[in-house]
Design a protein that fits this description.
Strands 8-9-10-11-12-13-14-15-16 form a 9-stranded antiparallel beta sheet, with no helix packed on it. The chain has a 5-stranded mixed beta sheet with strand order 1-6-7-4-5. About 30% of the residues are buried. The protein starts with a strand and ends with a strand. The longest helix is centred in the last third of the chain and has 6 residues. It is mainly beta and about 290 residues long. About 5% of the residues lie in helices and about 50% in strands.
């Protein structure tokens, strides 16, 4: 079977800092981080692999809503494994439910809700080279309303010079049950990430001092920082047994500051909508959908 589910409990009891910590044991998934940071190369069965560390060729989702921007790229800092109930991995054509552009596969991070998350969660990790990671999360139900909110932070100096990482993330969702067959939910994400880039060393430089940064990276203060705010809303309706209709809309505002050999500053505003109908029975399921983004 070319699908897999990674329960969050399998990685919460150990270091859960980067995507390899959460997906390292998922069959067919290759994740290679750089500089010990959250940016990584991600591929499923070889699809999606590339030289750069900005994700492409795969569909990254949170609660079925695309994290990819309109140009197809995605950022790994936009997801928080600690704020997921479980992770769904769809390899190859099994991801076609989420669109024809996801031929390499799709990874869906499913968030907890007020119905299935603990009322209060507090977590702290510490380690060498200034590594600090914390999470404070809460959930609850009040009548027809339920909600979940998670705030996390990650800072580390890194083994190398000019390799400091700072990531602050807020994830939340609020749901309302209008009736047993009709439910609505709003998702909110805010990410503030700052990453120094130490660059690559020659063999001679590595032998001289492996923890050094590339001189050019230090001189130009090369880094990759961005702010991301994302809002999504979904309405789910079950008109009959075995039938479901989902209407989802989303908006993402991203401000990138990326000084490398030149200074890249980009402000992007992405929005989209998805309409999906699913009919399931004993012999399988039929899914029809339409997604538009810009």
């Amino acid at each position: 079977v070319a699908t897999a589910v990674v329960e969050a409990e399998t990685y919460r009891d150990r270091r859960a800092s980067t995507l390899p910590d959460a997906l390292g044991y998922a069959p067919g998934v290759f994740v290679q981080p750089r500089f010990g940071a959250e940016e990584a190369r991600l591929s499923i069965r070889g699809s999606g692999i590339q030289r750069t560390f900005h994700g492409r060729g795969l569909e990254l989702l949170q609660d079925g809503v695309p994290l990819n921007l309109a140009d197809g790229g995605f950022d790994f800092q936009a997801v928080e494994p600690l704020a997921a109930q479980y992770i769904e991995v769809y390899r190859g054509a099994n991801a076609l439910e989420y669109g024809a552009a996801s031929l390499g596969g799709a990874i869906n991070f499913v968030s907890p809700t007020g119905y299935d998350a603990p009322a209060l969660t507090a977590r702290a990790e510490t380690g060498g080279f200034g590594y600090r990671r914390t999470q404070l999360a809460g959930a609850g139900v009040h009548g027809a309303l339920d909600g979940y909110l998670s705030a996390t932070s990650l800072t580390q100096d890194g083994f190398r010079d000019h390799a400091r990482q700072e990531n602050y993330r807020l994830f939340g969702n609020l749901g309302v049950r209008f009736s047993p067959d009709l439910e609505g939910r709003v998702y909110v994400t805010h990410v503030d990430t700052r990453s120094q880039l130490p660059g690559s060393l020659t063999r001679a430089q590595f032998r001289r001092r492996a923890s050094a940064a590339a001189p050019g990276n230090v001189a130009l203060d090369q880094r990759r920082d961005f702010l991301l705010t994302r809002v999504a809303a979904r309405v789910a309706w079950q008109p009959a047994a075995g039938h479901a209709v989902h209407l989802t809309t989303w908006y993402a505002d991203k401000a990138l500051d990326h000084p490398i050999f030149q200074v890249l500053r980009q402000d992007t505003h992405d929005y989209g909508a998805d309409l999906r109908w699913r009919a399931s029975g004993r012999r399988g399921a039929l899914i029809l959908g339409l997604t538009a983004s810009a």
